[in-house]
Amino acid sequence: MKKTLLPVLLIGLFFQAFSQNLVEATLLETRSQAELSLIFTLIGVSANNGGTAYKVLYETPDTDGTIDTASGLVILPILDKDLAKPFLTYQHGTASSRDNVPSRIPQEALLVYYFASQGYISMAPDYLGLGDSRRAIHPYVHADTEASAAIDLLRATKQYLDAEGIAYSDQLFMTGYSQGGHASMAMHKEIETNLSEEFTVTAASHMSGPYSLSQDIIGSTGTDRIYDFPSYVVWIFVGYQSVYGDLYPDLATVFQPEYIESVEQFANGTITRGALNDLLVDQLTAAHGASYPNRLFTESFLNDLRTNPENPARLALQANDLYDWVPTAPTQLLYCMADEQVAFTNATFTDSIMNANGAPSVTSIDINSEFGHGDCVIPATANTAAFFAQFLEGNVTSTLAVDPTLAFKINPNPASQYIRVAFPASATTATNIQVVNLQGQLIQEQVVESPTTLAIDMTNQPSGLYIVQVTSDNGFWIEKVMVGK
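RESULT FIELD:
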């Protein structure tokens, strides 16, 4: 009996130690609703709450199974601590350096603040190999660690909230932009495939992510294609080599001699990804007249990558594709057709495969056909917030309370030209009425002193789903309306 109890006891102690993966949470700053509103007004969105930001250190496994201490950003909305708030994970885009990550509060952290200002407990992992992680190099667009870094930050955040007596709900939303779109999709897949007993995804909005890596990269190696971000391609192969170990015997097997020094400096951490990109663009342009990433590689490496089904680099890329599975939660894939960094076909192809596989609720949306990668961020984020708002339970969107005396009715719904808003007799105070589209844009706003019935002209608005919010000094009420022409 003693021989069997001891191993069981040790396993139990190990599980208990690992399951408590929170290391520490450090207060970074607090931004008020007024401060955030001023910032967000400049980009056409609003803040309903302030937020308090924390840098969270937590344990998560590296690719070799050892435990690393990773970092991330957690922003708590300034709301009643007893109010059950939903979780939202935002996965960040490609970092230009090891410290250009959410826990250092760069510009991209404003997106995390934006979601916190909408009432979400908002989390953003830095990823392995970035921020405080001990890992020498970040495994770029590596699905497993993108997922585990986010999931373990979620676990650590719950531990912190439990210790502080801060209430939260079971709702979980996930999103991310660029590399973060790939990362949020990886998290989504991991939870619904392997962790459905621990978490349930409420809704997901993956933005401008490279979900079909193998097709994009292998397909682009055969011809000269100008691409001003060659460091991305280098980072993928160097990062995957640090994970799988068999992509190549040495850098000379993969890269042309004139680029090896720059790649080595990046792989050794001597220069940042941003500096590498500048070097490579200058070198490629000087040698070939433009930045053609395929010219970085030896012809033998590219030929084997294209033609050999068992090529290790090819297999690594395919292992990190994220299009061939079936999400069950409501999911949207946002893109801008003029995106010069991540081809919009990643979203449309993924949408088609998932729906062919029987996905119940997956759609791809072109946010703006003329917007590039940078311009797409804000409207895609606003669209995501409006999309998530449909699934929220309880009052978490505002410091105001839900006011049942404002429980207006919309007729007809669906509507075609006019929305008729009928207020209850109890609605006697001055009321602000806003109509917002799924891009988060304010379509109409009116102030009514004594609300009864109001007709809102939607004649010039495109078909789609809109949110009508009515606010008084006492609280608010929200309804959704479909407009069809």
